[in-house]
Amino acid sequence: MQDKELKALISLLDDEDQQVISHVEEKILSLGKAAIPFLEHEWESNLNPDVQGRIEELIHTLQYDLLRERLKSWYAGTEQDLLTGMWILATYQYPDLELEKLKQELEQIYYETWLEFRPDLYPFDQVKVVNSVLFNKLKFGANTKNFHSPGNSMMNVVLESRKGNPITLCVIYMLVAQKLKLPVQGVNLPNLFILTYKDDHHQFYINAFNRGLIFSKQDIENYINELHLVPQPSFFEACSNLEIIRRALRNLVMSFEKMGEHAKADEVKVLLVDISDGGDLGV
Is the confidence at residue 267, as pLDDT, over 60? Predict the structure, then answer.
């Protein structure tokens, strides 16, 4: 479709007949993501607040459809790369965010850590080096003041602010540690997401939300007892990247609900259904 035709369509968003507006919106949405740049340009140049509002909704719908498409493709893929999954999640709030930008920022964090890292150290000492760089030098930490902020689930926001929730902090930690060839993976604990360092000779746990605190299996058992829960194998062993993305999405739902943004919470719930196994939301 030519720009001239699109411009003519958008001018009809000001029509008094709701049927005409609905028909025009359907026509624009049928064009898919290719229409987004043009709509953004029209939004900037249009002075009618009603038309601007309709354009905003069209842009959001197209961007949301693109996100769903990407997420389904990620879910269907064999790799299910963790950073890609977190990037897709972040594009819900930041649709123009580029995956390459996140990769570059993580590469810089890895480089800062690598400079101080020695592969011949004992596992505890290796982890202490990572802790020192992430939490002392680079000042990453828990966002306890705004714990329920949706930004805590967005990788780009956390990389910039250095404040996050347990999952985003663990993801950053894990991606850096794995690049250093450390056997570090995520663990799905109730009410808290943590990491485990596990090789043929050692297994211990790391709480990235508490500045990389190292603890034992016994500590997890005590924690589970305090919550009056029956211990499950999943509380002690590594989880998949898919489970991490599901949990990050559930966190985002909770954040939006706490903020009273129920329409956004509902949209994120749809994303969870998109990556559920036969109706199981992974709750």
Answer: yes
pLDDT at 69 over 70: yes
User: Both 95 and 163 in a single domain?
Assistant: yes
Q: Which long-range contacts (CB under 8 A, 24 or more apart) does 60-67 make?
A: 61/29, 62/29, 62/32, 62/33, 62/35, 62/36, 63/33, 63/36, 63/91, 63/95, 64/92, 64/267, 65/32, 65/33, 66/33, 66/95, 67/91, 67/92, 67/95, 67/271
Element housing 141 (H / E) = strand 141-142
Asked, for residue 280, whether it belongs to a domain, the answer is: no
> 262: domain CATH number?
3.10.620
Domain that holds residue 167: 82-274
Q: Which of 245, 270, 249, 252 is nearest to 151 (CA)?
A: 252
6 and 35 Cβ atoms separated by less than 8 Å: yes
Residue 280, pLDDT score? 44
